[in-house]
Every structure is written in structure tokens, then in C-alpha cells.
Amino acid sequence: MPNQEPARATPTPKAGRDLPMAIGVGLVLLAALAVGLLWAPWFFVLISAVSLSLAVVEIHRALLRKGMHAQVKTIVAGTLVSVLGAYAMFRWNLGLPPTTFAVICVCGTVVACLVARLLLAREGFIRDIAASALIIAYIPLMGVFIPLMMAEPGGTRRIIAVVACVVASDTGAYAIGSLLGRHKMAPHISPSKTWEGFAGSIATSAVIGVAAALWCLGASWELGLVLGLCIAPAATLGDLVESLIKRDAGLKDMSNFLPGHGGFMDRLDSMLVAMPMGWLVLRLGMGG
Q1: How many domains does the chain have?
Q2: Cα gap 118→129, rounded to integer Å
Q3: Along the chain (288 residues), what's the average pLDDT of each consecutive run of 10 residues?
Q4: What's the pTM value of the predicted model, to 2 decimals?
């Protein structure tokens, strides 16, 4: 028989991801966010509400792997109403302060989940209500700070500043961690994270925070420094929490909703915890 050339293995993208697809999806997301933040704030809030709702579904599916059954439909509805309604209260002055409306909606979501679960079998009630409470506290309760920040004076610019600090934190952690990382930060949760990378995330977030305060917010450099120094640990915490949920559930990605990127929670993890922190720092520093 003639010699046959051995079959060549198909190159596998690094980390098992389709790089062109990841870049394409990333550019589409970036363009959508840019349009929303720069020209159509309502579109940004709509994208945020839909993304948070899909993140609810992802966390629900992860908890199902642990035998925990949240009232996912009720929580998705509560998330949409909380985020879109809080923005509507501000945008069209519908009678309630956005903060009051958000609190009512989140509390109403908890009550609705309790009622919905009461109608089912008695067994597993505590476990399932705990699952619903976790998702509500993790996603709509923190995600609602997006429209709340939008309702502040110069709200769009505040969101841009916070997002810029989160991106700087993630970028600094990756760059410095890759170059100088030696000491593992949380090897049982995220083996790639190092203390050197964490220091890099704080430094880059602080620098971008100062720049954003001076050129975007018209605030003092001291406020920008505080913003950056607070955002970096919050973003890192959000990343670690989501990583541990995936590890506990035996998942690599939360879902495949975003080809090349995983799930919405894989993109929102840092931002979720950073938004309340950014809202608090800027409200204390600039008023509301």
C-alpha cells in the first residue's frame, strides 16, 4: 500500500475558543454599548436589562446542577421591571423616585418567589427559596444600580467612568499578572489570578479613575483616585465569585449565549459588583 501522509490535526484556538468569532461578537457588543452610552441611554438600559435577565437564566441553570430550583421566570420578570421601570421613573418623571421604585420591585420579586414556591411541593422549600434569594441578591439587586446611576446628574458620564475603571482593572490584572505573576491569589478558585496581577489592576484602575474624573466627570483627581482604588477590588471580587460558582457547578462557561465569550455572566461578573461601588463613591463625592 502506498504511504499515506498522516492526518494533520486541526489547529485548536487558544483556550478552546473560536478567536474570529470571539472578536466579532466582542466588536458587536462594544458597538452596541457605545451607541447606548453616547447617543441613546435608553438603548443602553434596555441592553443591560436583557443581559441581566439572561444572566439570571445562566445562574439558574448552574444552580440546577446542584439540585437547587429557583423561580427563574419570576426573577426574570422582576429583573426587567426593576431595571426598565427605575429608568422610566427618572426619564419620564412618573411619580416615584427611581431608588424607591427599585427597592419596591426587588422586594416584590422576593415576595412573588415566596408565593410561587409555596404553591409547589413542601419538600426542598428552604433549598429552592435560598436559590431564588441568591439570584435576586446577585443580579437584579446589584444590576438595578445601572438605572440608578443613570438617574444621577451626568449619569451617563458616571457609568462611562465606572466601566472604564473596570476595563482598566481587568486589563491591568491580565497584563501584569502575565508578565510578573508569581504568587497565586486564590488557586482553588481561579488559578490564573496572582497578587501581582491584583496590584496591577489597582494601579491601572486608579490611573484611569483619575483621568475619568478630570476629563469625563469634571471632578477632582482625588475623587477619581478613590473611585479607581475602590472599583478594582470590587471587580476582582465579582470575578472570583462567578468563578467559584462555575467551579462548584462543574462549568467552564456559564453558557454559550455569546459565541467565543461564554455566557453573559462571564462578561458581567466584574461589572455587577463594581456598579454599586461606583454609584456609592460618585454619589458621596459628587452628590445626587
Answers
A1: 2
A2: 10
A3: 42 50 72 84 93 95 95 97 95 90 96 94 92 96 95 93 94 90 88 92 96 95 97 95 92 78 83 96 90
A4: 0.87
